[in-house]
Amino acid sequence: MSGVPVLEVENVGRVYKRGGFFGGHSFKAVDDVSFTLPETPQVFSIVGESGSGKTTLARMVLRLVEPTTGTIRLMGKPLNGKESIDNLAFRRLVQPIFQNPFEAFSAYLPIEAYLTRTALNLKVARNESQARESADVALRSVGLSYERIRGKYIRQFSGGELQRISVARALIPNPKLIVADEPVSMVDASLRMSIVNLFRQIVTEKGVSFIYITHDLSTAYYLSDHVAIMNTGRVVEQGAPGDILANPGEAYTRELMAAIPTIGARWAELDEIDRRYAHERTRDGKSAGKHQQNHF
Amino acid sequence: MITVDTVTVGYGTTAFVKAVDAVTLTINDNEILGIAGESGSGKSTLMRAIYGDFSTGLRIAGGTVTGRFEDERTGVVTEAQSRDFGKLWWDQISYIPQGSMSVLNPLMRVEKQVVDGLPKREREGDRAALRARIAKFLEGFGLHESVLDAYPHQLSGGMRQRVLVAIAAFVNPRLILADEPTTALDVVVQKKILLMMVEIQRRLRNSLVLVSHDLGVHYQITDRLAVMHRGKIVEMGPTAEIFANPKHEYTQTLIASLPRIDGERREARA
Fold it and tell me: Looking at domain B2-256, what is its CATH homologous superfamily?
């Protein structure tokens, strides 16, 4: 145990210029964001809507986008600048999982190639047979095996299975951190929880931390140790999910919570609409007047 | 309104792939009917068969889809089979697809696309008056007239979808079919659009069919619900009853699989 945090994000910002070579205006996609993932493996969720900056933040952690201001340190080493961590070491420590598994994999390559190539590229394996071996180990930890996926192409898998394979691929270098950007939004509802539970299992069994980027407050609540709510580039609120949702300090968090289509609690606005049209229609779904016919 | 009688739908001619298997279903006047199910359950195929869109190689191998549309302004009753529904599109039947970008022409301003799609009866009078009427209608849903002058890419995804929903309602159709209309959107925008769809249905007292894999959405806005699994309807009834007492095992699984912000959590800390 080194005592070094897995990830430190300090006053990070990202500005994009819009229009004009000299003129135009700048736009802060991410604005002065700070948080820390401690050494203890955990799930850190970043919740926000389109345009909140959550994906830009994830891309900065993945070193796909360079911050305009601030510092990101991985295991104590800066991601950018002169003293920055080298690429191979970086990619062994941090791995991504993307939103759409049908786009993440090519339709023309057998799926196992993604795992064996990752093993070879990251120098986890020195030859094909070692690569197959490490692919199999990774696949077994997500409930699959090399034998089961060998020779198949993406269209032969469901979205849920492909996301499991994405997780297996990410696990190949035994990373410290996995950054998952909306990993279950393309997956069927009944399979979502099995993927989310898989993340939890990997945190426990493999000691990997997750940054879970989502617009879905309910899976974030279920899964995470820590939740940060983002709006217009800033983290407006962060803390333990139970605390934040029991006692949301920000109006924006309350708005997000109120917009979830929860089973068991009907939106108040619907009753308002029904009241407005009550003279034409009763709540039990039966219509009144001349429109009642045609129930054939 | 619409009677779907033991209809079997699939794709292909030489090798027929069955997607909807002998489904029977009635769409009543003045109701929001939900169709729930996961990818591959056949819900979108059923929807296309009801819409009468056979352009994708869709084929009805058995059974019938019959419609009876009564125009309340003229009192004219139209009866038809789904293969003839094409004549009623954007007239008696409107369709709201999932991806607003894939149905809007990127090279054309919104106004032209809207006007081109309108049935003859709506296009009477001069263009300026028609535009004013459309603008007034959009305003009723909090959409500014300027969206008519925009190209689709200049609007956000949520805005485009709201425009599509408003346009689908503008022709005062008796049947609106919506296939996953909010799936790609954030919850706050989704709520706005769902409330808008409910308001439209209550105002027009027509029939709205909503296909969604999200049971929370069905719980919120549908009056009746059909749950599809592997091409068949496994359970159908008033939405409140299904959620209070789901009878089929598959429905129970679907309901139980949803996380809730007031529900249990996985133990924090590894």
Answer: P-loop containing nucleotide triphosphate hydrolases (3.40.50.300)
